Amino acid sequence: MSVGTKLLQAAAGNAGEAVYVDDLFSCFLYEGNATSRNIVNGIDLADKGGLVWTKNRDDTYDHNFVDSARGLTNSPYIRSNTTGSQGTDGGGITVFNSDGYTVGNSGSWNANGNNHVSWTFAKQEKFFDIVTYTGDGNADRQINHNLGSVPGMIIIKKYVGSTTRWAVFHRSLGTGKFLSLDDTAGVVTQSDFWQTAPTATQFTVETNGNVNNNGDSYVAYLFGHNEAEYGENSDEAIIYCDSFTTTSTWGNFKANIGFEPQWILVKRTDSSDNWIMLDMMRGVTGPGDQALIDTDMFGQDSDDQELKANSNAVESTQGRGGFYSKGYLGNLGGFGNATYIYMAIRRPNKPASEFAANKLFSMDGAGNASGDPDFVSNGHIVDWAFLKLIAGSEGAYATARPTGSTYISFTGGDKEYSDGSLDMDFQSGFGDSASGAVANYQAWMFRRAKGFFDIVTYVGDNTTNQQVAHNLGVAPELMILKLRNYASGWPVYTTATSASGFTLLNSTAAYQTGTYWGTSGGTAPTATNVTVDGSGNNSGVHYILLLFATVAGISKVGSYTGTGSDLNVDCGFSAGARFILIKRTDSTGDWYVYDSVRGIVAGDDPYFLLNSSAAQVTNTDYIDPLSSGFTVTSSAPAGLNASSGTYIFLAIA
Predict the structure, then answer these.
(1) Contact criterion met (CB below 8 Å) for 377 and 361
(2) What are phi and psi of 176, to 5 degrees?
(3) Rounded Cα–Cα distance for residues 209 and 635 (Å)
């Protein structure tokens, strides 16, 4: 952390307090209702100020920019897909709140039944700043700003005066060149926009009317670049502005950003093309970070939900590449040797300890038969979920945000399949089957959070001991691996069973040796990488890897030795476990699933077997509630409590 930042924090009375990307940027999805409402996205716009960029995804309404610098009187807006000056709309954004903003009934922001997205940028040193100024028509006009670092990108729009282009400066282009946010044209070399590189305190404009016409009013949005000032230890960058050139043959690319993005704005510069906007909430799929390929195996890269900053077009489905643990890769249409600039923002990275347990994991035991989403979380994003038909005989199956609308069954070891009804395009939940049949299912929903749970997709390359990067932030204690494009089992690693072997999530088999986690006895995962080999790294095979860890008071990955008598398992909780998964490892045994929705009580507790398609069993009392965790009873079978038997478990408070 810089001395300046420390002094600013001390002056504000919060010296040492970490700032996360979660506090400064939001990608928020909502369905319009044509009624004034609060959009609660967790961003303190009332105190910090900032920008809200909104688009109606289902209709040809314009992109709308509303910011604190121009103010909210009469709900003023400017639109990135037009050259027009500022307009007003009383049904637009009316108030900036401490946890988001208030929007009225206008169709651009809140059309009844239409899907909308808003991207909110809070003002913060080294991340984002807004400046308004009045043009004077003079060359080398210096404008002060408060970004506190050299901007990576600047977007300028005249908002009072004649119509003008949106002028864009990008660090990869340098001075004497500009792009227009409202236009598809490639980079233009022109000397009257900016001839002096911006500094940490000022940017300079020349005489062009798009940036400095005498007497006209302008707004400038300044974006930081690669300043490692954020995160738990104030050592993480959250915004990155750079460029890449596609390969000469297939037009593939790989932008190594250094973090996994949640949002990216991309523009081709050597030729005309749209300003492409992608984000993790609307859907960006990707194969992983180990290979460049044209499409995912089911054309899942075509699940990328694309909006164009220069167009009012409705959202379209395109193949534009994917996010991975350290950046952005894929194919942008097969153009070889094409040059692109981009701005990327890190995915949410607040540690699990900052959340209540029910904001990281929740269950929906009845489904939502009356509308979307099918399954509703407890107000949190769903990154991975599994669901099961509770009353009937059908195996449980899982779906994940990074793989699009797909599923993989836990039973039988089958490959991944597409299913458009398993859509995660919701702020709090998933699924849009438009069918009352979901009322017979239960869903278990997980949010990615540092220290708690992470997901990685990758492509095998058949090298020895390939290193797969992850963002869990700690060494995983439980890992579950699955091939996606071939039938296979679900190998499982835990710290209790070591990296020299595995158990199988789809099998009753005991722990067995193998090379999924590396050769020569395996390699334990670290806080940054997982080692894979053998069947965990077959060339061209697509994988999904789930990583779990213990978080004090929230989750526990552990083991116990059976006694045959009542056995208390202490997880460090205070109000008991809401979810329990148990497997015997020294002998054959099923994967038992218990949860508080179906009942963890001092009596019969329903369970089902994750490795079986059988219906749940409701007339046994194999576990009991315990405030610190759970109790395995003396009546439990050998699969849960054999004397001297060894067991692994995952419990969530």
Answers:
(1) no
(2) 75, 10
(3) 82
Q: Which residues contact 194 (CB under 8 A, 6 or more apart)?
A: 169, 175, 176, 178, 203, 204, 205, 206, 211
Tokens 């949002």 found at = 263
CB count in 10 Å sphere of residue 139: 13
pLDDT band at 6 (very low <50, low <70, confident <90, very high): very low
pLDDT tens digits for range 293-321: 222 333 333 456 777 888 888 777 665 56
Tally Cβ neighbours within 10 Å of residue 52. 27
Tens-place pLDDT, residues 472-528? 999 999 999 999 999 999 999 999 998 999 999 999 999 999 989 998 889 999 999
Structure tokens that stand for 199 in this block = 């500094």
Q: Which residue shows structure tokens 């999924």?
A: 516
CB 550 within 8 A of CB 475: no
DSSP letter (8 states) at residue 236: B
Beta bridge partners of 591: 583
Written as six digits, the tokens of 646 are: 């060894």
**Cα distances (angstroms) measured from residue 372 to each of 376, 377, 396:** 9, 12, 21
Give the Cα separation of 249 and 227 in Å (integer): 34
Domains of the chain, by residue range, sit at 20-122, 128-223, 239-346, 352-446, 453-548, 555-652
d(C-alpha 17, C-alpha 6), whole Å: 9
Cis peptide before 351, with omega less than 30 degrees from 0? no
Strands (E) located in 368-409: 375-376, 384-389, 397-400, 406-409
Phi/psi of residue 503, each to 5°? Answer: -110, 170
Half-sphere exposure of 101 (CA within 13 A, CB side): 31
Phi-psi region of 522 (alpha: psi -120 to 50; beta: other; left: phi over 0): left
- In angstroms, the CA 275 to CA 166 distance is 12
Tell me how far apart the alpha carbons of residues 256 and 238 are, in angstroms, rounded to a whole number.
Answer: 14
Q: In what order do the strands lie in the sheet with 37-40?
A: 37-40, 100-103, 93-97
Task: Tell me if 139 sits within 8 A of 205, measured CB to CB.
Answer: no
What pTM was estimated for this model as a whole? 0.93
User: What are 270's two structure tokens?
Assistant: 């050597």
Phi-psi region at 174: left, alpha or beta (left = phi > 0; alpha = psi -120 to 50): left
Sign of CA pseudo-dihedral 66, 68, 73, 78: negative
Q: Which of 334, 186, 169, 174 is nearest to 270 (CA)?
A: 186
Taking the C-alpha atoms of residue 2 and residue 20, their distance in angstroms, rounded to an integer, is 16
